[in-house]
Structure formats: structure tokens, C-alpha cells
Specification:
The chain is an alpha/beta fold and about 550 residues long. It contains 15 helices and 20 strands. The strands form five sheets. Strands 11-10-9-5-2-1-13-12 form an eight-stranded parallel β-sheet. α5 runs parallel beside α6. The structure holds alpha-D-glucopyranose (GLC).
């Protein structure tokens, strides 16, 4: 039987920012249940939930203190079960995030490790080491945290522990069989509760080269440390041994019927990324090359061809993403001058220079039609279906992303794409909750303009565009091939055929281009006999 995920569209829910049923300013599981009709009406195949587990929220829930429970601020396991049942009743699959690289510092294992002496079995669940220098006052290696600063923190007795992210996220030791057994059990726990699959956080970093002495990263140009692209034998990224973890997981997930699906977060070049989707490993990996591509026909052609070729080498199909909870919203990215340094842009007062949202929205609409036309599966991050822009002017005191503090205020972080959704045109929280309690991140004054309510009433809205595209996608979604139309596909015009009779055209230039004959299935802009600049169309040709 064909695996359901091969052509599925999954909608990413960031639970804290989706819908707040209990009116405490933070989204919750019951809120998700209450808004499932919005998701079902879009026409997607399922949802992927970012972490909702018990957590002190040092990293918005990617710091898990109990992998088998719901954070009390988000609800209960009973709420979770009700949400899964309500999703399944609407034919929506449910994928959950699993965070195997690290725990929260409040996880019982880490508390026990702190209470235990150096060299103890408790400490062996993590990566504790003595420091360098005469008195051990220097970190064991020069490894850096992804959020800024060293990847090591010192504890009271003088030892150091590894954290590739925040200090509140100690890395687990995947050389220890107890860690492996724990995650098999966590996978079984949620699979048994009926989840259909897992998104695997930081999937390529679990296994480290912990042979003594630990190796420093080599400094490359500009004093930056080497990245994985420069080093096939990196001490903690993309180690060959990590693949064995996913072979093992595949056997665990095959205990369930149907086998539970997996998608890995793997920020690696294509040829190394797809190795994670060999037939005995994960089902899918996110294809971040597409997200990173510039608004340019040649760039898209290149990424589409290489993504299809890479996936074909291991017998699978690519995934396509244009955003998620970690990156600047596509409407804003596409409205910025080419090559803008996004971190620097966010630091400018309120995102300065301003992104051209009119242009960015036209391009994002066209990009959505490109994304949803491609063979394989797609992931839509909540708010993309509303064309939400990045909120660039969140006041510094409201920022929660650890990157802000860890970077010494040189990186504003990811809160601008995590602002709670606007459901209604008016009201103090734009329908995010019923009582108007202040959302955990402030919403812009004009947020109601992008609300589901406003867009549902406007046939020309981004919301209606997504609904139409997702409905029309059914014509060709099962087809895993794309055929470039060589007579049209050149310059700023991308042109390819899908299924029996669909021609997809994307104009990345600003000049209007001639429009071939055909029935318009969905268009990102008014056509008027031509295909305007920064627009896309799906045509049915007899
Ligand atoms: C992943 C998540 C990100 C998180 C990090 C650490 O990259 O997507 O949000 O901060 O892992 O868990």
C-alpha cells in the first residue's frame, strides 16, 4: 500500500500561539481542538504539533521535562486524546514533535545527574567532562551553542556539561543504552495513543564523537568554527553512527499498524540529507534548500531538480517548506531586497528598512502555488495560509527566544514568526481567546486585517488561495513526476507539467508574460489575459 505521507500536506501548529481555550494568554490543546475545522476546511491532510510536553519553556517547549505528559498550561493527556480523536474524525493525521537530542535541565534525569558525583551512572546519561586549564576553568572543547556562547556550562563541583542549545537544554549521551531504550519507549507511548507520526528535532546531532580526548572544532575563515559542510568527520553533526538510531526506530514504529511516519529536521546539504531517508531509516526530511532559495526562477529550477534527484537516489520524494517556527515569515523575506541579512534586519528598529509587504505577499502567494504543485509532500506553518508577515517590532522586554539573551542582544531570535494567530477582525486578542487576556507575545494593532474572519469573507484572500490550491492539488498529487515544459521554461518563467493535464506557470520577473490557453484552476493574481509579474497559475489543458 502506498504510504499516506508521500503526497500529504501537513499543517504545523505551534501550540502556544494557535488558539487559547482557557484564556490565560497561551494557546493550548483544547484551543487546537476548537479550531480544527479551520484546518480541515483548508484541505490539508494532517497537523504536526510543535512540543506541548511539560517544560519550563526555556526554549518554548523544546526543553522537555517530561516526554510523556502535556504541560499543565496546555492541558492534560485527556485533552490530547480528545484532540487526536477530533482530528481523526475529520480525516486529519496527527504528528508530534520528538526532541531526542536534549532534555530540559528540569528533567528528573538531569536533576539526578547534578546530585550525583562525577563519573556516576547518572552523569553518564548526559555529557559531563572536566574542564581544561590548570584548574579546569576552561570548557572541555571550543564547541559553540547554536544560540550563542560556548556549548558547555559549569556545575558546582567544577565539571562541565554539554548543551548544543541553551544551558537549560543539556545534551543526552546517545552512546548510553538507557537513552536509546527510553526513546523507544517514548515512541511507543505516543504511537499507542494514536499519533500517526513524529517530527524529529535536530535529527542529525544526536550521536557525538565522545572518544577521548574530545576534539576541538577547526577554526576556518573569519574565526568561525567549521561547519558540517567543511568536515565529513564533524564531532557532533551528521555522524555516521546516527543512522543506526533511525534504523532502530524504524523497527519500533513498524510494530504499529500502519507504521508510524517520521520526518527529520536535518539542516544538511541535499546529498547528505537524503541519506536519512534510505529505505530502512526515516520516511522524510525537511528540504530547507527550498526555503532558503532566493526569489529567482533559476534558483528554484536548481533546487527543484536537485531535490528530486537526491530523493530519487534513495527511492523517495522530497518535502517542500517555505517557513516554520524558526525562520522569518516568507511574506517578509520575499519583500526584502535580495541578500538582506535577516538577523541584522530584525535588529533594525522595527525591522528597518521596512519589508515591502505588498510585493512580499504577491510573491508568497505565487510561491505557495509553486510549493503545492511540486511532487512529494509539503508542510505549511500556521499563519502562512493567512499571509502573515514577520512581526519585526516586538519590544525587547517581550522577547522570549533564548537567542536574544544568549547572543548578547545581537540576535532578536524567532519570536516574530510565533505571534499568536488572529482569528477575528476585532477584539483585544483578535479571537485568540474569548476573554481577551493579553497573548504571551503582543499582536500588532492591525493584526485583524489578516484574521481568518476577514479572509474567509474575501474570495481574493490568501486563505481562499490556499483552499483552492489544496482542493485542485488532488488532480495530480499522487503523481510523483514533474516534467519541465521546455518551450516555456526559461528566463523568469518556470513552467512544468503535473499529472495528466496540468500546466504550472510561475513568473518570478516583474513584467507580464503571455498566457497559454487553458482552463484556470487557480491563480495567485488577477490574470487579465496575461500572467503578471510575481504571480503563478495552474492551467488545465485538454
Ligand atoms: C530545532 C527546533 C528549534 C529548537 C531547537 C532546539 O531546531 O526547531 O525551535 O530551538 O531545535 O531544540
Amino acid at each position: 500500500m502506498r504510504q499516506w505521507w508521500r503526497d500529504a500536506v501537513l499543517y504545523q501548529v505551534y501550540p502556544r500561539s494557535f488558539a487559547d481555550a482557557d484564556g490565560d494568554g497561551t494557546g493550548d490543546i483544547a484551543g487546537i481542538t476548537s479550531r480544527l475545522d479551520h484546518v480541515a476546511d483548508l484541505g490539508v491532510d494532517g497537523i504536526w504539533l510543535s512540543p506541548f510536553y511539560t517544560s519550563p519553556w526555556a526554549d518554548g517547549g523544546y526543553d522537555v521535562a517530561d516526554f510523556r505528559d502535556v504541560d499543565p498550561r496546555l492541558g492534560t493527556l485527556a485533552d490530547f486524546d480528545a484532540m487526536v480523536a477530533a482530528a481523526h474524525a475529520r480525516d486529519l493525521r496527527v504528528m508530534v514533535d520528538i526532541v531526542p537530542n536534549h532534555t530540559s535541565h528540569e528533567h528528573p534525569w538531569f536533576r539526578a545527574a547534578l546530585a550525583a558525583p562525577p563519573g556516576s551512572p547518572e552523569r553518564d546519561l548526559y555529557v559531563f567532562r572536566d574542564g581544561r586549564g590548570e584548574h579546569g576553568e576552561l570548557p572541555p572543547t571550543n564547541w559553540l551553542s547554536a544560540f550563542g556562547g560556548p556549548a558547555w556550562s559549569r556545575v558546582a563541583d567544577g565539571q562541565w556539561y554539554l548543551h548544543l542549545f541553551a544551558p537549560e537544554q543539556p545534551d543526552l549521551n546517545w552512546d548510553d543504552e538507557r537513552v536509546r531504550e527510553e526513546f523507544r519507549d517514548i515512541l511507543r507511548f505516543w504511537s499507542g495513543r494514536g499519533v500517526d507520526g513524529f517530527r524529529i528535532d535536530v535529527a542529525s546531532a544526536l550521536v557525538k564523537d565522545l572518544r577521548e580526548p574530545l576534539r576541538d572544532l577547526v577554526l576556518v575563515e573569519g574565526g568561525r568554527v567549521e561547519d558540517v559542510g567543511a568536515n565529513p568527520d564533524h564531532p557532533f553533526l551528521d555522524r555516521p553512527e546516527v543512522h543506526e538510531v533511525y534504523r532502530d526506530w524504524r523497527r519500533v514504529l513498524a510494530e504499529f499498524d500502519p507504521p508510524r511516519a517520521t520526518v527529520g529536521e536535518v539542516w544538511l546539504p541535499g546529498e547528505r540529507r537524503v541519506l536519512y531517508t534510505r529505505p530502512d531509516e526515516l520516511d522524510q526530511v525537511f528540504n530547507f534548500d527550498f526555503l532558503r532559495a532566493e526569489w529567482d526562477a533559476d534558483a528554484y529550477r536548481g533546487v527543484i531538480d536537485s531535490s528530486l534527484a537526491d530523493a530519487a537516489r534513495v527511492g523517495t520524494v522530497p518535502t517542500w517548506v517555505i517557513g516554520n517556527h524558526d525562520v522569518v515569515r516568507p511574506v517578509s523575506v520575499l519583500g526584502l531586497p535580495r541578500g538582506t541579512d535577516q538577523e541584522a534586519w530584525l535588529l533594525g528598529d522595527g525591522g528597518d528598512p521596512k519589508a515591502d509587504l505588498e510585493l512580499g505577499t504577491r510573491r508568497a502567494r505565487a510561491l505557495a502555488l509553486l510549493e503545492l504543485a511540486l511532487p512529494g509532500s509539503a508542510y505549511v506553518y500556521q499563519g502562512e495560509e493567512l499571509g502573515l508577515p514577520e512581526v519585526a517590532d516586538i519590544p525587547a522586554e517581550a522577547l522570549e527566544d533564548p537567542r536574544w539573551e544568549r547572543s548578547g542582544h545581537t540576535d532578536k531570535g524567532r519570536d516574530g514568526c510565533r505571534v499568536p494567530l488572529p482569528w477575528t477582525v476585532a477584539g483585544p486578542s483578535f479571537g485568540f481567546n474569548a476573554n481577551g487576556a493579553a497573548p504571551w507575545l503582543p499582536q500588532p494593532e492591525e493584526w485583524g486585517r489578516w484574521s481568518v474572519e476577514a479572509q474567509a469573507a474575501d474570495p481574493g484572500s490568501v486563505l481562499h488561495l490556499y483552499r483552492r490550491a489544496l482542493a485542485q492539488r488532488r488532480r495530480f498529487r499522487a503523481d510523483e513526476t514533474l516534467t519541465w515544459d521546455d518551450s516555456l521554461n526559461r528566463g523568469p518563467l518556470l513552467a512544468f507539467r503535473r499529472g495528466a493535464d496540468v500546466l504550472v506557470l510561475v513568473n518570478t520577473g516583474e513584467e507580464s508574460l503571455g498566457l497559454p490557453d487553458g482552463e484556470v484552476l487557480v491563480a495567485s493574481a488577477e490574470l487579465d489575459g496575461a500572467l503578471p509579474g510575481s504571480a503563478a497559475v495552474w492551467l488545465r489543458q485538454a
